Amino acid sequence: MERQQIEEWRILEKEALRTLRDNDRQDSIRFLQILTIPAFESAVSYEIRQAGSPRHATRHFGVIARWRRDIDIAKFETPVERLKYPVSLSPSTRILSALRK
């Protein structure tokens, strides 16, 4: 990577980790979060959340959020490859949740 690409990558990486760390949903409250940030793999956030307000929490459910580092790093393979994407990149994150009764 060239110097400019390295700086863009650092910004994208910070944004991705912030998104995983601060994944606040308005309809629930975070009860527990485990965030794994491996050096060369995708970062993953595992959460247990309570549906509803703190006083009236009715259900718990799990949320898994993953930053697809492999997809984003491919955008920086060469300067020519980087030109195929917008100047301001958003992290490739995917959020899955399961509601338990």
Task: Write structural notes for this entry.
- By secondary structure, the protein is α+β, with helices and mostly antiparallel strands.
- It has one domain.
- It is 29% helix and 34% strand.
- It contains three helices and four strands, in the order H-E-E-E-H-H-E.
- The chain has helices spanning 3-21, 69-74, 79-82, and strands spanning 28-36, 43-51, 59-67, 93-99.
- The chain has a four-stranded antiparallel sheet, covered by helices on one side.
- A hairpin with a 6-residue loop joins strand 1 and strand 2 (43-51).
- The radius of gyration is 17 Å and the shape is elongated.
- The N and C termini lie far apart (48 Å).
- The model has no long low-confidence stretch (mean pLDDT 87).
**Counting H and I runs of at least 4 residues, what is the number of helices?**
3
What is the N-to-C order of secondary-structure elements (H for helix, E for strand)? HEEEHHE
User: Span between N and C termini?
Assistant: 48 Å
Largest sheet report: 4 strands, antiparallel
Average residue-wise pLDDT:
87
Compute the number of structural domains: 1
Shape type? elongated
Q: Helix share of residues?
A: 25-40%
**Count of beta strands:** 4
Structural class: alpha+beta
The fraction of residues assigned to DSSP E strands is 25-35%
Low-confidence stretches: none
Give the strand order of the largest sheet, numbering strands 1, 2, ... along the chain: 1-2-3-4
Return Rg in Å. 17 Å
